[in-house]
Automatic annotation (TrEMBL):
Bilayer-spanning residue ranges: none
Family: Belongs to the ATP-dependent AMP-binding enzyme family.
Native source organism of the sequence: Marivivens niveibacter
GO biological process: fatty acid metabolic process
Record-linked Gene3D superfamilies: 3.30.300.30, N-terminal domain of ligase-like
GO MF, one example: ligase activity
Domain AMP-dependent synthetase/ligase: 29-405
Source species, domain of life: Bacteria
UniProt-listed Pfam families: AMP-binding, AMP-binding_C
Protein name: 3-methylmercaptopropionyl-CoA ligase
NCBIfam families given in the database record: PRK08162.1
Length: 542
């Protein structure tokens, strides 16, 4: 007979002690307690939490009235404007799944996403009206309800839908009694990967994971209540790393921003007393290299960075500017960052560069992730914690996606022996911190030795004339492969390939130094990542 614990008897979950986790409840709570507090700042527009929650409920109710059913997809293509934030609540409050579409894609890619996601409603920011109109026609989605956002601050665009977002809200009911998911495993959102390494895949998040990662962001960053968060990280990317829901839980302020440029960023940091923002290392690099007169603020600002390895030199420059960097790591498949370089006070006394080197390690699991390991991908045996032996990075826990939409083979392939396989290669340090060395496709094998492209890039970023750099493998008869560096110089700089190679040789093992250097701008993906597959082709031809 099955053993029954004394705790099993009559202690079942009931409505008094169990509620499916969802991040939607954060907006309800914050609006109830702080209705008069600011929720949104955008140009001259100001919205309190009371007004914002009212708009969310009305939009949700209007979607239901329009016949949207639980589990159907509502897509939105928008910059980081207030409606994009509201949609993160309004759409799942209606029971639908929110699909945020990358705004930098072309009509063909958007058409693929809208039809793969079977979008029933498409909400469009005027900046993207032309490309979305073409995509809708390509996809033949003539039955979808297309809703135009009106943004008076944006010059251009046109109406392509049958109603505006505000008209939709006007149809809705302010007393709409929305209910959370019956099951916390229900889908809340659908995010397509950017296809850096292949075709975009539709990553499905559940309410439970979104709730947990949103809360984890607060812990990871030690965010004080009512933080003032600047929207530099696209909300279309992994739902802005779950930050719309984090800001609601934090009763914070969304400082919205359409275009990510240094000037408005520094201006908003100063004028809106921004306390937190997120961005890929490429955004940090842009800010670090901006003219000094823009960097006119004196209060404490924190930035969270992920998406690619932040070169230690970029971290050091940001911190010298008075912006504290938190380095995190993750994938679309893990709700954005789920690993953090948790900081230790004992490292405070290191000098700036050594501190930055510590901070450029990816780190340890965040509070929402159950487990993290670096292991042999064939046997799943963890590698020794020696900071040397390379393995693949695996994660598991509640902040790993449900799977890829309508793609069972890719889903199965990514889940190995109870773990999610990241496709990233790294090492485990003796103190339990992981350090990413490369994507498995990017590692360079020269004369039988592994060379981490990230390590070489890190040295290149320390060269004072270098603005951006990327390193890929170049086929070589003698060595198999050699590192080939692509370098974009700062304006007005004049250095030769021999200078760059000599600099690298002085700062790292000689065999790791690039043998070839090619100057010029670097090709980037729609999420600002350097397209190494294009560089590999160029290296082969060079
Ligand atoms: N802190 C970090 N340091 C180094 N690399 C990082 C960091 N954070 C993220 N990455 C890289 O970004 C990848 C996740 O990116 P994302 O989920 O946005 O997909 P993608 O690369 O843009 O697209 P696709 O999965 O389609 O190739 C990780 O696997 C890792 O290679």
């Amino acid at each position: 007979m099955k053993h029954q614990s004394i705790y099993d008897v009559s202690l079942d979950a009931n409505p008094a002690n169990y509620e499916a986790l969802t991040p939607l409840s954060f907006a309800k709570r914050t609006a109830h307690i702080y209705p008069e507090y600011p929720a949104i700042v955008y140009g001259d527009r100001r919205q309190t939490w009371g007004e914002t929650y009212d708009r969310m409920k009305r939009a949700a109710s209007a979607l239901v009235k329009r016949g949207i059913k639980k589990g159907e997809t509502v897509s939105i293509i928008a910059a980081n404007i207030p409606e994009m934030f509201e949609a993160h609540f309004a759409v799942p409050m209606s029971g639908a799944v929110l699909n945020t579409v990358n705004t930098r894609l072309d009509a063909e890619a958007i058409s693929f996403i809208l039809s793969h996601a079977e979008a029933k409603v498409i909400i469009v920011d005027p900046e993207f009206s032309d490309v979305v109109d073409r995509a809708i026609h390509m996809a033949g989605l003539t039955d979808a309800l297309v809703v135009d956002i009106i943004d008076d601050t944006f010059d251009g665009g046109r109406k392509i839908g049958s109603m505006t977002y505000d008209e939709l809200i006007a149809e809705g009911d302010t007393d709409f009694d929305w209910s959370g998911p019956a099951n916390e495993w229900d889908a809340i959102s659908l995010n397509y990967t950017s296809g850096t390494t292949g075709n975009p895949k539709g990553v499905v998040y559940h309410h439970r994971g979104a709730h947990l990662n949103a809360m984890s962001n607060i812990v990871t960053w030690g965010m004080q209540q009512h933080s003032r968060y600047l929207w530099t990280l696209p909300m279309f990317h992994c739902n802005g790393w779950c930050f719309p829901w984090t800001i609601a839980a934090n009763a914070g302020v969304c400082v919205c921003l359409r275009a990510v440029r240094a000037e408005p960023i520094f201006q908003l940091i100063r004028d809106q007393q921004v306390t937190h923002f997120c961005g890929a290392p490429i955004v940090l690099n842009m800010l670090a290299n901006a003219p000094d007169e823009l960097k006119d603020f004196s209060h404490q600002v924190k930035v969270m960075t992920a998406g690619a390895s932040p070169p230690a030199a970029v971290i050091a420059k940001m911190e010298a500017m008075g912006v504290e960097v938190t380095h995190v790591y993750g994938l679309t498949e893990t709700y954005g960052p789920s690993v953090v370089c948790a900081w230790k006070e004992t490292w405070d006394d290191l000098d700036g560069d050594d501190k930055a080197v510590k901070k450029s390690r990816q780190g340890v699991k965040n509070v929402a992730l159950d487990d993290l390991m670096v292991a042999n991908p064939d046997t799943l045996a963890p590698v020794p914690s020696d900071g040397q032996t390379m393995g693949e990075i695996f994660m598991r826990g509640n902040v790993v996606m449900k799977g890829y939409l309508k793609n069972p083979s890719a889903t199965e392939e990514s889940f190995k022996g109870g773990w999610f396989a990241s496709g990233d290669l790294g090492v485990m340090h003796p103190d339990g911190y992981i350090e990413l060395k490369d994507r498995s496709k990017d590692i360079i094998i020269s004369g039988g030795e592994n060379i981490s492209s990230i390590e070489v890039e890190d040295v290149l970023y320390r060269h004072p004339a270098v603005m951006e750099a990327a390193v890929v493998a170049k086929p070589d008869e003698k060595w198999g492969e050699t590192p080939c560096a692509f370098v974009d110089l700062k304006p007005g700089q004049d250095v030769t390939d021999a200078d760059i190679i000599a600099f690298c040789r002085d700062h790292m093992a000689r065999f790791k130094a690039p043998k070839t250097v090619i100057f010029g701008p670097l090709p980037k993906t729609s999420t600002g990542k350097i397209q190494k597959f294009i560089l590999r082709d160029r290296a082969r031809e060079a």
